[in-house]
From TrEMBL:
Keywords, sorted A to Z: Glycosidase, Hydrolase, Signal
Similarity-based family: Belongs to the glycosyl hydrolase 31 family.
Residue span, Glycosyl hydrolase family 31 C-terminal domain: 579-661
Source species: Anopheles stephensi
Protein name as annotated: Glycoside hydrolase family 31 N-terminal domain-containing protein
Stored PANTHER family: GLYCOSIDASE FAMILY 31 (PTHR43053), MYOGENESIS-REGULATING GLYCOSIDASE (PTHR43053:SF4)
UniProt record, GO biological process: carbohydrate metabolic process
Domain of life: Eukaryota
Length: 667
């Protein structure tokens, strides 16, 4: 049923009064007011959700979403619809139009406890659509503002995400700010989720009150279409957990299989932080011998930067690697699988490979002739490199074929670096649906990588949650704080899981030791402890680079990780079958727990292990919040009831606070 008051009705009534007054020759002083705004209500038949669309005095419209008597979300259509706007209803929704905008609000799904709707308009080039999501605006019995999750991966990964700030931020994958995963997905503790469709040229703004979605045909998006769509979907469920599960089923997808199990059970070792560049065959062999000599297991040994003749050649330098086949055979005999660091760039001085790629149209070219094929990455100067066009199927096949040729030397698989859209020249002139540019470059790169199987790793994604591969966190700095340091580790883990990427590969233990950063023994050990119950562990700096005690402690926690590897794999399989996070936040066990909703320095493994590492320098204790349930201390076997704090939990450097559900049984 729709209840409606319109300005048109008001004006007709006024006109009738004037005619009557004239007929009676009565003098009336009448003030014509324009304060009777349009109001329209749409009720979902099965769920308790109600949409109330209300015009404001400034001719903007607000869509209020109610669950029963409680308002759970407010959206402002930030456009002056002028005083001739109107709303019309149709069987599954309502349509708002005025001043060049025509917004359709359509019911997509209605079931017990869940309502799902789309908000859509088509705009012409030069128009701007801007909708405001109010972050803290609720009305009802519970006046506590909701908390928000999802959004982009960032260098300073605050959690919950209402602490983030953006200003006219183009929502594409980019290396800047470590925004390598940038799903258009947000949800809150009131049980509401938003998903902006991929075809939208999306920019966002965020402050402490609102998240603004803006659609406009500006760079870095494709700007040559005359029309574009501004559409997003809203789901309303009972709570945050239910909302997220509904979103996974409808918009986020879930993985089709799990990645390589050995990468879960045993540590990955990389040459990168320990040796930097260049490296050599002898360096790699010596490193492998050290790992074995100190009694550590391995999933694989990654040969990182710089092994190529030149960047983009995908050809071993025979001076530093005189016999690759012999090297890989020796590594295999020592029990190592061998992976190789690769990237999507070709430097201009890397011939004949650069000339071949250029002549065959395998490089990304800008519409801007001044830019041409030019780009820059961390191993080139300005305008001294180009980016391979993975939107071109022939370029994909060329790149893939060269990787297969490398594998014939005994290389088992690859670590794929970069892939974010921002590395390509601006305003790319490439293949593919124009509405998906430029981010389709990321999608096609990652899908090419995934064709090499579950033993690979990538570091970026956009709508690629279905792929059965590890997604690595971007490079961390060797610091304690939120500024891309240890305290960002758990928020990044949660952000990735809550965007539908459960197969998280944490960055290397201790970070990358860039610039003036110093890796202390304490930071190394605490970083390892924080990573133990994540899906995989990755070393480059080694425990024996520090001291004997570090070796002992590191073995202890590598073995603890391996002890729970079967359970990690079990939770990975549940991610495939049910779309659940491998490492959810602790509120997952009780979405109504208001304390748990804000905990950023603890996480779960599945639903049976609470992990609360020490993340502060010089700290030997911490407060631990246990969520709903009965928990056994993993260090002391003491039993605790959840829903309460444990204050000043003692945790010297060799102790990781963790708690196992009293009902947990390892398979």
């Amino acid at each position: 049923m729709a209840i409606r008051v319109t300005k048109k009705c008001f004006l007709l009534s006024t006109l009738g009064v004037l005619i009557l007054a004239a007929a009676l020759t009565v003098t009336l002083v009448l003030v014509l007011r324009d304060d009777e705004e349009i109001s329209e209500t749409y009720r979902f038949a099965v769920s308790s959700i109600e949409l109330r669309l209300e015009e404001q005095p400034d001719h903007r419209y607000v869509l209020n979403i109610y669950r029963g008597d409680d308002r759970v979300q407010r959206i402002t259509f930030d456009h002056d619809f002028t005083d001739d706007s109107d709303v019309e209803t149709f069987p599954k929704g309502m349509r708002l139009y005025g001043n060049g905008h025509n917004i359709e609000i359509r019911e997509l799904e209605d079931s017990a406890g869940f309502a799902y709707l789309s908000i859509t308009r088509t705009l012409r080039k030069g128009q701007i659509g801007s909708d405001v999501v109010h972050l803290h605006d609720t009305l009802g019995s519970d006046q506590t503002p909701p908390h928000w999750y999802g959004g982009p991966e960032l260098m300073e990964q605050y959690y919950p995400i209402e602490k983030l700030r953006f200003d006219d931020y183009p929502y594409i994958t980019k290396e800047l700010h470590s925004a390598a995963i940038i799903e258009r997905y947000w949800f809150n503790t009131a049980g509401v989720f938003f998903y902006v469709d991929k075809e939208v040229p999306l920019f966002i703004d965020q402050d402490d009150q609102v998240l603004r979605f803006t659609a406009k045909k500006e760079l870095p998006y494709y700007t040559y279409d005359e029309e574009f769509v501004f559409s997003y979907r809203v789901g309303v469920a009972a709570d945050a957990r239910e909302a997220h599960q509904k979103a996974v089923e409808r918009v986020l997808n879930q993985p089709v299989d799990i990645p390589d199990e050995r990468m879960v059970r045993q540590p990955i070792w990389s040459t990168w932080v320990r040796y930097r560049r260049p490296i050599s065959q002898q360096t790699v062999l010596d490193f492998a011998r050290e790992i074995n000599a100190y009694g550590f297991k391995n999933a694989q040994l990654d040969i990182d930067d710089l092994w190529e003749v030149c960047y983009g050649s995908l050809t071993f330098n025979t001076i530093t690697f005189p016999n690759v086949t012999e090297m890989t055979e020796m590594l295999h005999e020592m029990g190592f699988r061998v992976t190789l660091w690769v990237h999507p760039f070709i430097n201009k001085n890397c011939d004949p490979w650069y000339t071949e790629a250029l002549s065959k149209g395998y490089l990304v070219k800008s519409h801007n002739e001044t830019i041409g094929y030019n780009t820059k990455w961390w191993n080139s100067g300005e305008n001294e490199a180009s980016y391979i066009n993975f939107n071109n199927p022939d370029a994909v096949e060329w790149y893939r074929r060269r990787l297969r040729e490398i594998q014939e030397l005994g290389i088992d698989n690859f670590k794929f670096d970069a892939g974010e859209t921002s590395w390509a020249p601006a305003d790319p002139d490439i293949e593919g649906p124009t509405a998906l540019l430029p981010s389709s470059q990321t999608v096609n790169f990652v899908r090419m990588c995934a064709a090499f199987g579950g033993m690979i790793e990538v570091r970026t994604g956009w709508g690629t949650q279905d792929l059965p591969v590890f997604v690595r966190m971007l490079d961390f700095d060797t610091r304690w704080g939120w500024n891309n340091g240890l305290q960002s580790l758990i928020p990044t883990l949660l952000q990735m899981n809550l965007n539908g990427y459960p197969f998280v590969l944490p960055d290397m233990i201790g970070g990358n030791v860039y610039g003036d950063d110093i890796l202390t023994k304490e930071l190394f050990i605490r970083w390892l402890e924080a990573s133990v119950f994540m899906p995989s562990i990755q070393f480059s700096k080694t425990p024996w680079d520090i001291d004997e005690e570090s070796i002992t402690i590191s073995k202890k926690f590598a073995e603890l990780h391996e002890t729970y590897a079967d359970y990690i794999i079990q939770r990975m399989r549940l991610a495939v079958s049910h779309g659940t996070p491998v490492n959810p936040p602790i509120w997952w066990l009780d979405p109504t727990d208001k304390i748990a909703q804000t905990i950023y320095d603890e996480y779960l493994l599945g639903e049976d292990i609470v992990v609360a590492p020490v993340l502060a320098e010089f700290a030997t204790s911490r407060d631990v919040y246990l969520p709903k349930g009965t928990w056994r201390d993993g260090n002391t076997n003491r039993v605790h009831e959840g829903g309460r704090w444990i204050y000043n939990y003692t945790a010297p450097m060799d102790t990781l606070p963790y708690f196992v559900s009293a009902t947990f049984q390892a398979n």
